[in-house]
Fold each of these.
Amino acid sequence: MYKNAAYNFEIFEDPKQKKSAQILNLPSIESRKNKQAKEKLLLLIKSFCILIASGATVGGFIFGQAKLTEYNHQIYTSSKELDDLKNRNDQLNIKLVSENITSNNSVVPVKEKESVEILTIDAGDKVEIK
């Protein structure tokens, strides 16, 4: 191959090493099939995990929306009840004040001239406004 022996490195190489370096060990058909089966199994496991995570996310979102709707309904009914109770409280306060006024003044007050107003509707008719 080389004309000059000084550049011929094949002399220094081991012939067994040369043979083994030229031979490529290809994986057998069975090992390739096993590798493909493992890859398919890993793909199946990854897909299943992604499906579970997606389902949990969607389920959590739906559950949160249901709870939010329930809480909104509770707030609505509670605020409606609060308004009714405020109105009832106002009514009771007015009743209490009127009872206190009548209990303090056990005698019905005499009409004062300022509270009586005389209106003329027809000639000679008189009306009192209390």
Note: The longest helix spans residues 29-104.
Amino acid sequence: MTHHGRRRRARPRTRLILGAATLAAVAIESVCVFTDRGIDVERGGNVNRHAVRLVEPIVLRPGEECSCDEPNDGVDCTPACPLPRGPGLPHFLDPGAEEEFYRYCECEFGFYDANYLNPLEFFAEDEDVEPDTDKVFAALLLDWDSSSSSTSSANSHVAYRDLHTGRFILDSAAYDSSVLLRPSPQTRRLVVAGDRGVDLCNAHGTTAEMGQRFHTLTVLVTDRPWYTPPPVQGVGDPPPRIGVPDIAAGATWDRLDYVFYCHDSSDESCQEQCVEEQ
């Protein structure tokens, strides 16, 4: 009812409904529908589908060594499960262990630590083979802050250059992995060894001072050549920054850390452990 006492008649909504339907039909006709056929995705230049990674062996009990092979009626399996070999080092080389396996000394110039490590062997995997097989490089770093999200400072911590310079491509050293039902892991091997082995507390090829304290050895690998700064006019091409992955070129990287302790040469136990070079 209106204020004049007459009932207002409802307005027809037919025109509004027809108008909305017409707009919907126009919108549907204007939509382009793409099928999922015939689409060719072109990859960019810095493709790196598989990241490089350092691998370590899995410790198996004797009864598990043959578990990945066919039943052999109790006969010892040869070879055992195909796993990468590793350095066999714990990530914390406890200087207080009763066996004193990991008690190391920083010796005076012209002496070496008789308790040096045997040669170390590390393995890295990178499955990239197309369009080219990735080239894997490695560097040994001393007391680098591995918790940092940036690798730009790694070059100043490169050490043990007499054991590994970091300039050469790692050699392939594939092991059989067909039982794992996966593509070839494209394994590379890094051997760290000097004339006698690995003398951790007498690091040659570095300007870092060791000192009587805990230190960290970092093994770092990358699947692109090390980062090289752009050339400087009048100076020439700068050398590569060993230890610094070239992230802009699509590089990936991985690391393993080992913590050890160096005793001073004045320590009583180091008097006999430090041997003069011949």
Note: The CA atoms of residues 72 and 210 lie 53 Å apart.
Amino acid sequence: MNLRFQNGNKLFELACIVEDNPEFSHHGDAYAIIKIASQGFEGETHCWIAAKALADFRKHLGNLSKAHKGTVPLASMDPDELALKVRAVDDGARLSIEGKAGNWVDGTWHGITFGFTFEPEQLAIALTTHAGGSP
């Protein structure tokens, strides 16, 4: 699953690679690379997302795209590394994404909180582009 939401210079990108090696402990789970730009801050991080969490996220994003109401959360296996929600705002006229992402580097926490609105068409395009693919 790949997502990209943008509003001006605010950006959220999620690129997931599903681990397909059955000998690896994260078999079936997704290694996620996250890029964020918000209010002049930028960052890139990575984390693991459980297969079920990613599948549920994708399913509920599909429902949000159709109904234009509700909130869809996603968290990484370590919820400190990625926690976000996509939700309908303005009676579904726009969507928003908000959350936090980061990780420990050399004993110091590096992270970013973010949030912005975006047009619902961006979600529809992302879901259509990756329809029928793996989570």
Note: The first helix runs from residue 51 to 67.
Amino acid sequence: MAYYKKIKDSPAYQKQDLPKDSPVFKASVNQLTLSQLEKAYPYLTRLYPGPDALERLQMTETERQQADYVLDRYQEVLAQQLVNWRSPTAMQDYASYIKASGRNPYTGQKVDEGTRLMAEHYSWVKGSSTLVASLISAKIDFDEMMVANHTGNKNYRSQDDLLGSFEDSMSPEDAK
């Protein structure tokens, strides 16, 4: 136990304060706009913003703290934007803003007639495109079933089986 206390009390094992990012660094980051932040720290524009694991391993503790501060500041600046391009509802927010104000949220200029029309009918267009994608997917699946049937793959039912089961489920009045 005495040996443990001796080691624990030695200067090498004392808690050391981690280096802090300086107020000068914080002030310089705080004055940057969104585009300036993205230009100065290109890792912010990645799918997952921030330094990746290998980059973090090569950083000093001060650099890591600075990168974390830059990332926090980037999130703050993004939250102040009218339309956040990282949001899952970015297009919906974009259309809503145009519909409400008639201006482009990125440039502040008045939008043209086509963009205004898109914004007014965005939910209809989004729903229609989802329906069309579903119909195309169903057509592709059906075509693959037919190809598999003609090549001898018995994992799919034949077209005659499908139509036969449909006709069997019909009532006699419906068949007339």
Note: The mean pLDDT is 78.
